[in-house]
Amino acid sequence: MTESARLSARKSAAVARGVATRGIYAARAENAELWDAEGRRFIDFAAGIAVNNTGHRHPRVMAAVAEQAQAFTHTCFHVAPYEGYIALAERLNAATPGDFEKKTMLVTTGAEAVENAIKMARAYTGRSGVISFSGAFHGRTLLGIALTGKVAPYKKGFGAMPPEIVHAPFPNAFHGVTEADALEQLERLFASSVDPERVAAIIIEPVQGEGGFNIAPAGFLRALRDICDRHGIVLIADEVQAGMARTGRMFGFDHSGVLPDLVTMAKGLAGGFPLSAVTGRAEIVDAPNPGGVGGTYAGNPLAVAAAHAVLDVIRDEDLCARAAEIGEVIRARLTQIAAQQGMECIGDVRGLGAMNALELVTSRTGNAPDAALTAAVVAEAEARGLILLSCGTRYNVIRLLPPLTIPMEQLHEALDILEASIEAAVMKKAA
Ligand code: PLZ
Questions:
Q1: Which residues neighbour 191 within 8 Å (Cβ) at sequence distance 6 or greater?
Q2: Strand partners for 203
Q3: Residue 135 Cβ contacting ligand 1 at under 6 Å
Q4: Given 20, 74, 78, 140, which is the most exposed site by the fewest CB atoms within 10 A?
């Protein structure tokens, strides 16, 4: 029995069944590589689900955390606040889109950032409704799953969702939903389901992550901004997956020039340490009364120290430019693979910066999903030493999330493995 098999058996016996896992038991990791319990080496195209944008164990992140650990690791910011939190708020206020007055609160997970953004929007507007989108993912808390635009597995079995949350269609050219369709449907929702004057917030990912790497068109974001201005609605950019240099700009919204009122961040913010943030218009962030928001671990000192180092690395290693550069290498290669004979299963290649995906279909002429082939490619890649993640509401999208610090030769090595894995999966399917 291998060590991984032993761990798998212990996991099945001891860990909640609902916490689904892959079979790669991590032993150590360095930048874009990860070694499992058997010593097998992988190139990591998951990066902890878009968390390790600065790679595993970036030396500057490690040094910052080690230094902070010498001073203190936890005080609770409500009890004994510290400068690092304040300085990080100042940096995030400056880094997020728009040069209006901003404020920040730190929490721990992406879901918590989303929850707090909604609380702020409700407190500010005195309204309770929220519009989110089909295919959206906003976290696994009860409000998070209510906002998430996919029932199974996220909402199934968990009872009544919080009221006044309405899902509008997300524009998706490949699935035949145009920007105009999506806007028309939203207006219809305002006529049939929810009074826009009762809506506190519209929340949207600039590029849907779990939902399939669907890019929100700039025109759509502009139209949402307009609708929000017209009805006094708070526009929330959920940058948990797309933010922190991943798309080739600091934030996904930066590509559109549209200014959200609130931005949620997590994942790439602290290079593997649990930290999230809500940053936005001072008057909205300040709407909850003192004591109305917070948490024991919110803005943990070690994670805050890591985030400062991450922001330094993004600046000093110019990771926005690097994301754009590796994104171009990836898209060129994917486009070339898709054009080859036998690769008709690749229905769509899309991406923004280093957030790229392949959508797999049963035939080039339609968009019928091939979830089985998608799972087979992921498995073939794993057997060849490449960690891939699928996504998409129809389980047929392969997303590529390498660390932005990946050496170029490892990027090419990984793309070779990806190509071989698709070939192998297609061959096995035909056999
Ligand atoms: N908003 C846009 O992508 C987390 C989910 C993993 P947490 N995405 C990965 C899983 O299967 O639970 C995410 C996101 C967007 C919010 C979240 C939630 O962030 O840190 O997982 O709470």
A1: none
A2: 236
A3: no
A4: 20
Question: Before 206, cis peptide (omega within 30)?
Answer: no
For residues 357 and 399, the answer to whether their CB atoms sit within 8 Å is: yes
Hey, where are the domains in the chain? 3-57+318-430, 72-316
Distance between Cα 137 and ligand 1 center (Å)? 7
- Helices H / strands E in the chain, number of each: 13, 17
Q: Supply the pTM of this predicted model.
A: 0.98
- Helix or strand (DSSP H, E) at 77: none
Burial 217-228 (b: 16+ CB within 10 A, else e): beebbebbbebb
pLDDT tens readout for residues 286-329: 999 999 999 999 999 999 999 999 999 999 999 999 999 999 99
The pLDDT tens digits of the residues spanning 122-135 come to 999 999 999 999 99
> What is the arithmetic mean of pLDDT over 158-187?
97
**Helical axes 371-383 vs 408-430, angle rounded to 10°:** 130
Asked if residues 107 and 298 have their Cβ atoms less than 8 Å apart, the reply is yes
DSSP 337: H
Structure tokens at 31: 């930048």
CATH hierarchy code of domain 72-316 = 3.40.640.10
User: pLDDT band at 364, cuts 50/70/90?
Assistant: confident
Burial per residue of 339-350, b for 16 or more beta-carbon CB atoms within 10 angstroms, e otherwise: eeeebebbbbbb
Which atom belonging to ligand 1 lies closest to the Cα atom of 210? 3
* Fold match, 3-57+318-430 / 72-316: no
| Alpha helices for 126-271 (secondary structure H) | 142-147, 179-192, 218-231
Decide: 111 in ligand 1 pocket, CB within 6 A.
yes
Q: Is 210 in the pocket of ligand 1 (CB under 6 A)?
A: yes
Please report the pLDDT score of residue 189 as a whole number.
97
Strands of the sheet containing 389-391, edge to edge, are 346-352, 355-360, 397-400, 389-391
Of 213, 267, 297, 389, the residue with max ligand 1 atoms within 8 A of its CB, to mutate for a pocket test, comes to 267
* Half-sphere exposure for 98 (CA within 13 Å, toward CB): 17
Asked if 251 contacts 97 with a C-beta cutoff of 8 angstroms, the reply is yes
First and final C-alpha spacing in the chain: 31
CATH classification (class only), 3-57+318-430: alpha beta
Residue 209 Cβ contacting ligand 1 at under 6 Å: yes
Picking from 199, 201, 187, 186, the residue whose alpha carbon sits closest to that of residue 235 is 201
